Amino acid sequence: MNFLSRFMDGAVRGGVPKVSSLIADRRLGIVFQPIVNLHDGSICGYEALVRAPSTLSLGSTDALFDAAKAQQHQKQLELACIEAAIEQWAKKTNGSPLSLNISAKSLLLLEHGPADGALLKLLDNCRLPSRVLTMEITGLSSRIDPLELAGPLTKLRRQGVQITFDDFRCTESHVKLWSRLSPSIVKMDMKLTRGIASSAEQQKRVRALVALSRRHGNRLAAKGIETAEDIVALNDAGVDCGQGHFLGSPDAEPTEYLNKRAREALASGWGVDVPC
């Protein structure tokens, strides 16, 4: 019996089958989306994303997580996604960096109370070295106490895991979490980056975040990049890395190279030509 099965032994059996059975039967689909260095066009890592099986009546991934939350299986589902992603990644690569998602709420629940240390134990016993892993913390809000979150983040860092803050917005609570907890990477909310090429206000905000990232010694990332114009604007603003369908779509088989249209878009911002 693997680690997750032991952890879920009591929780799975009492739940509504649609989510708990999916976890117990290990039927989670995992895809990987490239994260691209906007300064040189290299793929600097991948983000693991879960996909609900097409046979599941819940349909979309969002619906799956909504159901898990309603059935009080959210932290179990998130932990199952992490374990499945690590298992798949260990079979596909020779150590490329991998980003894994977990909500701040689930991280706190998994590191305190009955599930104390569940995430750290999983990472400690997985088939990948911690130095290639990044935990993307989602669901940050004013309700998250920086002091409470600092403990689990410190433990992850001690294991060699990097920390990313996902869906960062220009709010007082997010800036406070950034300054107090110092993640390695801050990934901006899509609303800050989509359409940035045609928005002077978005450009101004992103440049301010770039300056803040330089001051804190962090890297700044963009998500949801869909056009060549936005790539050029983000690169011009000084954003370090990015992801989106224009750069590379999520796939069960991770792409090894940046596609030509993305290379051409980046090169136009650098003022160089891209060979065919």
Task: Please provide a written account of the structure.
By secondary structure, the chain is α/β, with parallel strands linked by helices. The chain has one domain (3-270): TIM Barrel, CATH 3.20.20.450. Helices cover 46% and strands 17% of the residues. The protein contains twelve helices and eight strands. It has helices at 3-13, 17-24, 61-70, 74-92, 104-110, 118-124, 146-158, 172-181, 190-193, 200-216, 228-237, 260-270; strands at 29-37, 43-51, 98-103, 133-138, 162-168, 185-188, 219-222, 241-242. An eight-stranded mixed β-barrel has the order 1-2-3-4-5-6-7-8, surrounded by five helices. The termini are far apart.
Record the SSE blueprint.
Blueprint: H1 3-13, H2 17-24, E1 29-37, E2 43-51, H3 61-70, H4 74-92, E3 98-103, H5 104-110, H6 118-124, E4 133-138, H7 146-158, E5 162-168, H8 172-181, E6 185-188, H9 190-193, H10 200-216, E7 219-222, H11 228-237, E8 241-242, H12 260-270
Parallel strand pairs: 2-3, 3-4, 4-5, 5-6, 6-7, 7-8
Antiparallel strand pairs: 1-2, 1-8
Helix pairs in contact: 1-2, 3-4, 7-8, 11-12
Protein traits:
276 residues, alpha/beta, TIM Barrel, eight-stranded mixed barrel, 12 helices, disordered N terminus, disordered C terminus
